[in-house]
Amino acid sequence: MEETDREAVATAVQRVAGMLQRPDQLDKVEQYRRREARKKASVEARLKAAIQSQLDGVRTGLSQLHNALNDVKDIQQSLIDVNKDWRQSINTIENLKDVKDAVVQHSQLAAAVENLKNIFSVPEIVRETHDLTERGELLHAHRKLMDLECSRDNLMYEQYRMDSKNTHDMNLIHTYFGDMQKLSEELAKQLWMVVQRSLVTVRRDPTLLVSVVRIIEREEKIDRRMLDRKKQTGFIPPGRPKKWKEKMFNILERTVSTRIEGTQADTRESDKMWLVRHLEIIRKYVLDDLLVAKTLLDQCFPPHYDIFNRLLNMYHQALATRMQELAAEDLEANEIVSLLTWVLNTYTSAEMMGNSELSPEVDVNSLDDLISQNVVDQLLSKYMSTLTSNIIGWLRKALETDKKDWIKETEPEADQDGYYQTTLPAIVFQMFEQNLQVAAQINEDLKTKVLILCLQQMNSFLTRYKDEAQLYKEDHLKNRQYPQCYVQYMIAVINNCQTFKESIISLKRKYLKSDMEDTLSISHANMDATLDIIAKEGCSSLLDEVFMDLEPHLNELMTKKWLMGSNAVGTICVTVEDYFNDFAKIKKPYKKTMTLEAHRRVVVEYIRAIMLKRISFKNAEERKEGAERMIKEAEQFRFLFKKLAAGSGEDTEGLCDIIEAIAEVIKLTDPSLLYLEVSTLVSKYPDIRDDHIAALLTVRGDASRDMKQTIIETLDQGPSQPNPNYVPIFKEITVPTLTVPKLLK
Predict the structure, then answer these.
(1) Does the keyword Metal-binding apply (predicted)?
(2) Residue 249: partners with Cβ closer than 8 Å, 6 or more residues away
(3) Distance between CA 152 and CA 16 in Å, rounded?
């Protein structure tokens, strides 16, 4: 307390010091004193009120504790009295055991009396119930069955209460009601038959199905009641719980599985389209059943059965099981496609689960996969492997069939524009189209894979095609009379190359996404190159055919006979034109190339005839006559190939100019100008060699050895400025006899 007083005095001193810091504040001392006195009085009043409140609370608490103590004493006394009375009544309770037994016996007898009528009429009720079941009056039959079961259960329960260990009496009751169990089984059999045919029954007689559901609901309620009594008493009648609701769903599940499995009417041996038919029947049945379940069946069951969704899950599980079974079989390529198309597309499409009449109850996005992605991948891998083998076999067979056409004695067919062709490109790309259309039904990724596979196999196929075309040519050269239509079929082979090119482009445009084109650019380029080689070799073989026929006439050129007026060039032109009447049925890209090549080869052979030095002109008159004949024949060639190249837009005159230029060298009358004329020739055609000049001068016949040597040496020293557009031609021509050194000796 002293410490508290000191702290209070110190605080007061601080407050007074704070209020009297200036002299003028001394005048307010009385005012300060009154204010502090008021504060003190206020604080004291609050303290008194608080203390008084605490005292009142303590007083009330003490009073309640006193009352509680009195109550506890009263309760204690009451418990003592109850204990005393209980101890006194023990003997009395033991004396009432006989009364208790009498009460139990009375209860049992009362139950027996109550069921006495049913007990004596059990055989009659059994017969009536059996008849009702046979007549299909299921509700009435079940009502009587319930009455029988109720009588039996009550008797057995009372017996259980009286003596639970007395199995003899229990068995006696059970035996007496033994026919009732058979009735229950017969009724259940009738119910399950209706449940199995529920989707048919609901259309014809929905009342019958409703009766079945009502019976099952009754049994479910009895099951629940019996189970509750078992928890309380330990007794449950025999045959309970029946669980007919659970059995009903099991029956429905087995029915759905059987319905799915039973749709396979054919096998692969009896029908190649067995799987397509099987899947289509499944689709139709499942869709029809679900529509019936939604519109009719759902109304015959209580809402808590959720019958539509239960059936939907059953069908989905049954379908998943069936699809997995089918996937595990040794399916062919077309069957794999049919299965995957159905599983991945048809199942969720508007033709089945996506049908508008099934929404919103059926959400295709929430349906699980019928087969796992792993199984899908395995099937796709097997399909690609099988398809690869099939395509190789199809292409080989198509080529063998086409080869048989090559040796026919009838000309090949022509397309609408009159170009010869065989059926090979159409067969090959029709096969590709069919497989791509089938793959597109599954997904885009498979379509792209199949396209890449087709083009890869096409690349290999074209190599074999090239080899077979070469063998065809070689076989023909062994006997030019066979095959009879060799030229026409070789033209068809050439045209097929162009058709293949166009078909490849069309196929890529139709089935390949633009962002994937780069992946096939190399393969496409390789195929184009192979096709160009086939076409080029085909054109070359046809020209070989022409020049083999021209060989006797080419051998007449630049001979005495030729100078005397041979019509060799006329015959050459007629023969070439005759062949080109057939070659007109070659498609334009290759026809143009072939015309230019024929022109070039004719000119080359003509120049080669000059360089062979079959003739040496004796005088200026012969040189003039020979040169003019050469110019005339060059004009014939020019006219011929201009006619053959009509519409191609190509310049066909340049090659014939070489013949005219050589003719000018031969025609020259002034030997002193010979060097100038030859140098002009060399400047125009820089690939001309020394042996060509020597051979040309030899044919001319008036050039001495010194002149030849001088001209050749001078030309060798001169600058050469070749025309960049000039295509060398002399490099193909050899002078087979004397070399230049021997000639100059």
Answers:
(1) no
(2) 310
(3) 104
550-574 per-position pLDDT tens digit: 999 999 999 999 999 889 999 999 9
Crossing angle of helices 138-162/97-114, nearest 10°? 160
d(Cα 582, Cα 414) in Å, to the nearest integer?
A: 12
683, containing H or E segment = helix 674-684
Q: Which amino acid is at 183?
A: L
Closest CA to 618 of 701, 714, 555: 701
Chain centroid offset of residue 691 CA: 69
Report, as ranges of residue numbers, the positions in the chain whose pLDDT lies below 50.
649, 739-745
What is the chain's length? 745
CB 272 within 8 A of CB 331: no
Distance CA 416, CA 733 (A): 42
Contacts 24+ apart (CB under 8 A), 264-269: 268/332, 268/335
Torsion angles phi and psi, residue 370, rounded to 5: -70, -40
What distance in Å separates the CA atoms of residue 221 and residue 240, rounded to the nearest whole number? 12
Which pLDDT score is estimated for 578?
92
Q: In three state form, how does the secondary structure of 435-504 look? A: HHHHHHHHCHHHHHHHHHHHHHHHHHHHHHHHHHHHHHHHHHHHCCCCCCCHHHHHHHHHHHHHHHHHHH
The per-residue pLDDT for 743 is: 42
Sequence-distant contacts of 180-186: CB under 8 A, at least 24 apart: 180/122, 180/126, 180/145, 180/148, 180/149, 180/152, 181/238, 181/239, 183/126, 183/129, 183/130, 183/133, 183/141, 183/145, 183/148, 184/145, 184/149, 184/239, 184/242, 186/130, 186/133
Contact 466, 530 (CB under 8 A): yes
Peptide bond into 237 cis (omega under 30): no
Alpha carbon separation from 570 to 577, 642, 661 (Å, rounded): 11, 16, 21
Say which residue the tokens 């962002």 belong to: 515
pLDDT of residue 541: 92
- Beta strands of 191-345 (E only): which ranges? none
CB-based contact 686:720 (threshold 8 Å): yes
Task: Give the per-residue pLDDT at 741.
Answer: 45
Please tell me the predicted confidence (pLDDT) of residue 362.
86
Report the Cα 629 to chain-centroid distance in Å: 73
Here the tokens at position 601 are 């080869």
- The pair phi, psi for residue 423, each rounded to 5°, is -85, 0
Q: Which two tokens stand for residue 43?
A: 């604080």
Cα–Cα distance measured from residue 466 to residue 464, given in angstroms and rounded to the nearest whole number: 5
pLDDT in tens, 621-656: 999 999 999 999 999 999 999 888 875 545 555 789
What backbone phi and psi angles, to 5 degrees, belong to 343? Answer: -70, -45
Task: Using DSSP, state whether 414 is helix, strand or coil.
Answer: strand
The 8-class DSSP code of residue 14 comes to H
Q: Is the pTM of this model over 0.85?
A: no
Give pLDDT, residue 119: 62
Q: 164-170 long-range contacts, Cβ below 8 Å, gap at least 24?
A: 164/234, 164/235
The residue among 632, 616, 614, 665 whose CA lies nearest residue 565 is: 632
